[in-house]
Amino acid sequence: MMKFVIAIIKPFKLDEVREALAGIGVAGMTVSEVKGFGRQKGQTEIYRGAEYSVNMLPKVKLEIAVSAELMPKVVETIQTTASTQSIGDGKIFVLDLESTTRIRTGETDETAL
Amino acid sequence: MKSAIWKLGAVGLTALLASSPAFAAVAEAPVAEVAEAVAEVAEPAADAVGGGTAYIFNTLLFLIGGFLVMWMAAGFAMLEAGLVRAKNTSTQCLKNIGLYSIAGLMFWVVGYNIAYPGFAEDSMGLIGGFSGIYSMQGVGEADIDTGYSVASDWFFQMVFCATTASIVSGTLAERIKIVPFFIFVTVLTGLIYPVVVSWEWGGGYLDSQWGFSDFAGSTLVHSTGGWAALIGAIILGARIGRYTDGKVNVFPGTNIPLATLGTFILWLGWFGFNGASQLAMGTVGDVSDVSKIFVNTNMAACGGVVIAIILTQIRYKKADVTMAMNGALAGLVSITAEPLAPTVGQSILIGMIGGAIVVFTVPLLDKLKIDDVVGAIPVHLFAGIWGTLVVAWTGDATFSGQLVGVLLTAVWVSAASAVIWLALKYTIGLRPSAEIETAGLDIHEIGVEAYPGLANQA
After folding, report:
1. Quick count: other Cβ atoms within 10 Å of Cβ B39?
2. Interface test mutation site (partner A, options B239, B309, B314, B316, max chain A beta carbons within 10 A)
3. What is the ipTM of this complex?
4. For residues A66 and A2, is the Cβ–Cβ distance under 8 A?
C-alpha cells in the first residue's frame, strides 16, 4: 500500500521541513508555490491610497508519495516542523495512492517510490 | 594667456596651502592676504573665456543636458513597466520607445520651427513658424555669434518634446490601442507642445505680454503633458473593473524594483532638464548657477519623497513606496519652473508641498473615477501648476502673469487634446475590445509577452 501526502505550509518553513523529511528517509517530493485561504482569511493592504484585501495568501504545497508504513512518521514530522503555533500554518491531507511508475525504467509501485 | 595660467597656478597653490591646517596656522595672515589678492584677479581672468571657448562650454552643456533628458525616456519606460500589470508590460514598453521616436521626427519636421518662430516685433506672438523642417547645421559649420552649436540646441529642445509625450503614456496605460495613441503623440509633439513653447521660450505672447516665467518647463512641458493626459483619461474612461459599485479596485504594479529604478533614472535626468536649462556655461557665473540648480533640484526631490513617506505613514499607517516615487517626481516638477532663484530651504519646501499635493490628489482622482495608472496627473499637472505659481514668490514674476500662463496652457492643450481624442474615439476607436483588454494588450497588440510563462520557456 502507498499513500499520497499533500501538505500546505508557510513558505519560509520549506527548507526546515525538507531537511526533516530527508532525515526520516523520504526520497523525493514535489513543491509548488500556491495561493489560498483558510481560517486565516486574507489581509488588507494599501496601494496608492486605496485599500484592497488580499484574499489569497501565498503558501507552499508539498506532494509526497510514500509507503503506508512511513506515512504516519511523515505526517508527524511535517506537523511538528511546520508549526509556528499561529494561524495560517496550513494543513496536511493524506490520500490512498493507486499506482506509481518511474518514467526512466518503467518500475512500478513500491520500487518506484 | 601665460599670465592666466600663472594665476591659475597661484589659485591652486593657495587652495593647497589653505587646505593644510598646520601650514595655515603658521602663516595664517599672509596666506589669507594672498588668497584675497588672487581672488580679485582670478575672477575676471576666468570670466573672460570668450569666443570659441564659451561656444564649446555652452554646447557641451546642451549635449550633456540633452542626453540626460533623453535618458528620462528610459526612466518613464521603467516606471510605467513596473506599475502596470504583467499582461500589459510589452505594450507599455513599445509605447515609450515609439513615442520618443515620433517626438524626434515631428520636432524636426515641424515642431522646432513652430516652437521658435521668431515672432515679429509687433506680433501678439500666439502662433507661427509653419516653415517646415528645421535646417540643421552643415558639417564643420559653427556660428560663433549664436554662442552654441544649433544642432546641440535642437537636440536639447527635442528631448523636452519627447518628455511631454511620455507623461501621457503612463496615465492611459493598459486600455488604449497603440495606433490611436501614436496618432495623438504625433499631433502633441508636432503642434500642441510646440505652440505652448513658442508663447514663452519662443518669445511669444506669455513672454512678451505677461512676463511669464517658466525656467525649465513646469508648465510648458509637465502641465502640457498633464492636461493632455487628463483629457485623454476622461475621454478614454477607466480600466475595466477599476471602479465598481462605488468601490476602487486596486490593480497593483508588477515590478516595484523596476519602478524604483525608473524613478531614479528620471531624477538623474532632471539634472540635465533643469541644469542645462541655464542654456549657458561659458562664464564663471553660469557654471555656478548650473551648480546651484543641481542642488535645488535635488533638494526639492528629497523634500517630496520625505513628505510622501511621512504623510502615507500617518494617513494609512503604511509608507507607500509608489507614493514616495511620485513624491520625488512631484518635487522635481515643482522646482522646475524656477530652480535657480530659491534658497535651499525654499526648494525643500516647494518640493515638499509638491509631494503633499500628490498624496492628497491621487485618491481624489479615484473618487472622480479618473483612472491614472501611474499618478502622472498629480505629479506633472497639479505639481506643475503649483511650481509655476510659486515662482511669483521665489523668482522674477507676478502672480497674475503666472496664472495667465497656467490658464492659457490649460485652455489650449485641453481643447486641442479633446478634439484629437474625440476624433480618434469616433473614427478608429481608442479602446480594444473588452475581451482583449481583459486578456492583456501584450498578446493582441504586440504579440510578445513581457514575462513569458513556464510553457513558453522550453
Report:
1. 11
2. B316
3. 0.72
4. yes
